[in-house]
Amino acid sequence: GRYHTNWLNMLYPRLRLAANLLKDDGVCFISIDDNEVDNLKKICNEVFGEENFVACILWKRKKEISNDSKNVAIQGEYIFVYRKSYNFQLSFEGLSEKYLKEFYNEPNNQFPLGKWRPAPITVSKGLKGGGYKYDIVTPTGKVHNRIWAYPEESFKNLLNNNRVYFGKDNNGLPQKVIYANESNGQPTTNYWDDVATNKEGKKEILDLFGENYFDTPKPVSLVKKMLSLATELNSNDIIIDFFSGSATTAHAVMKLNAEDCGNRRFIMVQLPELCDEKSEAYKAGYKNICEIGKERIRRAGKKILAEWKEKQTQIKIGENEEAAPPDTGFKVFKLDTSNISAWDTEAYSNESHDMLQKRIDEFLEGVKPKRTALDVVFEIMLKTGIAITESVEEIEINGRTVYSVSDALILVCLFENVKTEDVEEMAEYTPAYIVFGKNSFASVSDLKNAEIALKDTGIDIKFF
């Protein structure tokens, strides 16, 4: 293979696709162990460009130092970060509990507005230019004459707003008071030892299923950290995971949305890799990895909704306004051939008479056997440029089912023997157009009458 391993050969086209799908302010995270880190860097430089390399992060995925290695015990894993263009910038992280505990003081009578810390306002003697020289008198009467970072008027404003700290004895050098809740946070580091490990990832699977179906699943908090750095608060960004696996990314997206009232959406991509017949997953009825991932999203969504309901009185979008429950719904699509029968004379030329007659019947029918009505509806959406995330609802037209797509933007009619009165009732929903099967109408005259009935409505008729 071009990059020595099957995994990297699979990764290369997905990275190219990711680069094409990314918005100008988009970013890509790729995790890798040290066996292929060198090759991955070369691939990413080729796909994204060396200038769009952001960082190589080392994630401490294992706390223990195991004895299963003859040379070096592996505790870390690499995460490459590449952006689409200079328009992207990683967000700052909120101040960690460890940082707050180490550098901030608890609120007190003098500074009651939250955790705070003093910051020097003197200018270093070695700094050339800048600064302001004047006297500052402490509450005890001591005079400090230094070069200060603020003009005298600005210092007086700080003093009047109770933002100056003179030390425990009110006699020291003045310092500006900074509250933690005013901080924009701090940049992330390239060493992540403060997030969960693979062990916590396995525990999350165990909590949801009662069994461990994956050896090294990523923990939710790791992906949440990436999402927090790459997306804004209350974001409606789309997150794609091309190696979905246990669907940790979907779990993390739903959990983060529940925490900050975001509307992020996810697309999980996973080949239906078969589970080992001796595995616990296979014994539990999961024939491939995709089935486990889908069930994980269902169970995680149910758990997140239950947790949200317990906290809903604390979650606010604005003043006195309760947040809407997080959206944990999802749709599943499988890559397949078209649902619509297509006549291929070359492919069918050598078939028997009976089989050929069957093909003719299928072709005249239009829709392939074993394909559902929704299969056809979603294919029509894809071919007409409507996002498959849009709503699809069943409506009743003269006792039969018609599909309303995106709040009746279009209607899809799959039943046969359509009559003029059916079309007239559909027109009351004022869609942009109505889609019918090739042989939907009861007669040619019904089709002509339908076209006449819709002539002045601006509603078009299309066929699949």
Task: Tell me about this structure.
There is one protein chain. The protein has 464 residues and is of the alpha/beta class. 33% of the residues lie in helices and 18% in strands. It contains 14 helices and 18 strands. It has helices at residues 6-21, 37-48, 97-103, 152-160, 198-209, 220-230, 248-260, 280-283, 289-311, 345-348, 353-365, 373-383, 420-427, 444-454; strands at 27-32, 53-60, 76-83, 116-120, 132-137, 143-148, 164-165, 175-179, 191-192, 238-241, 265-268, 316-318, 321-322, 392-397, 400-405, 410-413, 433-436, 460-463. The strands form six sheets. A five-stranded mixed sheet has the order 14-15-16-17-18, sandwiched between helices. Helix 7 links the parallel strand 10 and strand 11 (265-268). Helix 7 (248-260) runs parallel beside helix 9. It is extended. The protein starts with 5 loop residues before the first helix and ends with a strand. The mean pLDDT is 87.
How do the helices and strands line up, and which of them pair or pack?
Blueprint: H1 6-21, E1 27-32, H2 37-48, E2 53-60, E3 76-83, H3 97-103, E4 116-120, E5 132-137, E6 143-148, H4 152-160, E7 164-165, E8 175-179, E9 191-192, H5 198-209, H6 220-230, E10 238-241, H7 248-260, E11 265-268, H8 280-283, H9 289-311, E12 316-318, E13 321-322, H10 345-348, H11 353-365, H12 373-383, E14 392-397, E15 400-405, E16 410-413, H13 420-427, E17 433-436, H14 444-454, E18 460-463
Parallel strand pairs: 2-9, 10-11, 16-17, 17-18
Antiparallel strand pairs: 1-3, 2-3, 4-8, 5-6, 7-8, 12-13, 14-15, 15-16
Helix pairs in contact: 1-2, 6-7, 7-9, 13-14
